[in-house]
Amino acid sequence: MTQAPETQTLAPKKPLMQRLLYGQNVDRETKSRARVGLVILAFACLYVIISGRLVYLAATSDGQNTRRGGGDIVATARPDILDRNGEVLATDVRMPSLFGEPRRIIDVDEAEELLTATVPDLNPVELRERLSSKKGFVWLKREITKEQQQQIHRLGIPGIGFRSENKRVYPNGASVSHLIGHVNIDNQGIAGIEKWLDRNGLADLHSLGFAKDRQQKPTELAVDLRVQHALRTELLAARDKFKAKAAAGLITNVNTGEIVAMVSVPDYDPNDPREALDKERINRLTTGVYEMGSTFKALTLAMALDSGKFTLGSSVDARFPLQYGRFKINDFHAQRRVLTLPEVFTYSSNIGTARMALALGVEHHKAFLKKMGQLDRLRTEIPESAEPLVPKRWSELNTVTIAFGHGLSVAPLQAVMGISALVNGGKLIPPTFLKRNEEEAAKLARQVIKPETSERMRYLMRLNAEKGSATRAEVKGFYVGGKTGTSEKVVNGRYSKTKLLTSFTAVLPADKPRYLVLIMLDEPQPSAETKGYATSGWNAAPTTGKVIAKVAPMLGIEPRFDLPPADRQILAATASARAR
Amino acid sequence: MTMRILHLFVIVALIVAAAYVYDIKFEATMQAERLAKVRGEIKRERDAIAALRAEWASLTSPGRIEALAQRHLPLKPLDAFQIDSLANLPERPKPPQSEPADPIAALIGDEDPLPTGSVSEQGGQ
Predict the structure, then answer these.
(1) Beta-carbon separation of B50 and A94 below 8 A
(2) For residues A498 and A444, what is the distance between their CA atoms, to the nearest angstrom?
(3) Could you write out the three-class secondary structure of A253-268?
């Protein structure tokens, strides 16, 4: 019904066109003009299409859609990792990898024989299995040398090819192993900063097929390779000398929270990450949790001073061991008299610190440690971290023991963060492995204790190096302050008298702290040189001294000689500043 | 007649246009090939630079340098006593006053503006 009018309207038009082109009774000239017109129209259409296409190409194409080289499919690139001075810690190098296309292989036996002759570490059985499979593509050997590639190329076996892949190399070997971690065979980060890179968008780039070339912005870390190496050398020497099971060290900038060096030996070579699986080679500073021993007394004393109930002039009764139920708390360097607060610190009195913590109460103690970040898991850029072991029921006895560093296990990095806050003016700054300046740190910082308390803590730390347990860590010219820590390890549920974990925390320089150094030795053995002692003052403290003597010039700390003792350099200076 | 000239003109223009297009096309292909080649070269160079940088880093790694220095150099680790600030450095002593190298020249050159000790003394008197 509806079609009828349409055909009627079209009917006169069609005959018109036909009449113009082919009609018998039409004038020749009109007809040819019509024909030429038609041709012009057709060409005009063609040109419009061409110019339209040109405009489209000019607008959209940026010249990138050229053909891509074939061998790039799996070559995922990673950004370089640099230390704070721009030294290369990790970079990508192109390495050829050998693959086979079993469907195109003519003679498996011949291919297998020739290949095993050229690449000796190929497993013949496995190779034959792979080449006989029905797959279109199999890897035969990842990362062969250029010479091997040449040789195999010359053999001319059909169905065997190469693909160049990015291989991660760590030029400094084991020096920075725990810090930067390592990658797997597909160049994916599986530990340390490498994993952090993947978690921060690199993995997404890879899965989308980007990040193929090396034009990525390198990642700059806070670590200083020279300091890291010096620390590692000293730790290896100390581990040898004191026959310790393990040794670990950490150097951090107290004002920014940057980790300038972090070593835990035994470590592994990230170029050969199989060793990383060994349980003895874990990173003790972040993955292990330990009872930090007397190091925690610094936190207890800071708590006591910050509460206002105690001052540097306060005295604590340490005449008798503290009897608590069936437990008896005694001192290692027992004085059997009333001690002043600085003496409690320098003699490292368990009784004294325990009494102070008790005087402030369990809740106050718990709240303070919570504020100092000692009760929660500390997370940094690197994925390895450990939950502190906090007692489920926190009784007075727990407060007594935790006051001198037993009964609460924390990651050493966590303790370092807390002690940094004690000396840097009372600001708790989360530690970082990336570069950070003081302004950025100030934004993240949280004031946890009063600046005056922090000054007194610096004084106590320095006093300890002048006449306390830390004298062996003193380095002339750098005004070191510090606290020893010796804790007994728990063996079969009991504290062992012979298996010790010793640590030393040093502030550098004590009057205006810039760096904090933590050295930890796991089960150091007593020797004739240490007069039969295995406590921190005899092994961790002198090791720290050696480390400081070596790294302080690298860290740009100016040596100063003939400085007055702590009470005048630190306390008097601040007192006069306050009087003004 | 005009029609014929027009036709001729159009045909010539067509041929010229075709030749020109062919030329451009050829040029473009050449350029594209060169571009691809240079891109490949850049990529190879970058890879080579990366390999060299990695090698440099491993050759200059502190562990290696330390071992080499211990074996071949009589150097010892730096001691804190060896470091001092510029402010603590005493003033440079005055150079000892010496006779002019050429006494005759000094005698002749009375108007010698050189502020040597002898000249200034004479000038003062």
Answers:
(1) yes
(2) 42
(3) ECCCCEEEEEEEECCC
N residues, chain A: 580
Tokens of A545: 């001294």
Helix (H, G, I), strand (E, B) or coil at A340: strand
Question: Is the preceding peptide bond at A266 cis, omega within 30 degrees of 0?
Answer: yes
Per-10-residue mean pLDDT of chain A, 580 residues long, equals: 45 64 75 88 95 88 46 64 91 86 85 85 85 84 82 87 86 89 85 88 65 70 94 94 93 94 92 83 88 91 92 87 80 84 90 91 93 92 88 89 91 93 93 92 92 91 88 88 89 82 92 93 86 85 93 89 80 62
CA atoms within a 13 Å half-sphere pointing along the CA-CB vector of A485: 33
Q: B79 to chain A, minimum CA–CA distance in Å?
A: 7
Amino acid at B10: V
**Amino acid at the residue A509:** P
ipTM score: 0.71
Q: Which of B37, B38, B58 to mutate to test the interface with A (most CBs of A within 10 A)?
A: B58
**Cα dihedral sign, A245-A251-A254-A256:** negative
Cis peptide before A509 (omega within 30 of 0): yes
CA dihedral (A471, A476, A479, A485) positive or negative: negative
The answer to whether A469 and A348 have CB atoms below 8 angstroms apart is: yes
pTM of structure: 0.77
Residues near A244 by beta carbon (within 8 Å), at least 6 away in sequence: A238, A521, A522, A523, A524, A525, A539
- Residue A294 known to be catalytic: yes
Backbone angles phi, psi at A464, to 5 degrees: -65, -35
Residue A570 · residue A459 · CB < 8 Å: yes
Give the single-character DSSP code of A557: P
Cβ-in-10-Å burial (0-12, 13-18, 19+) of A4 comes to: exposed
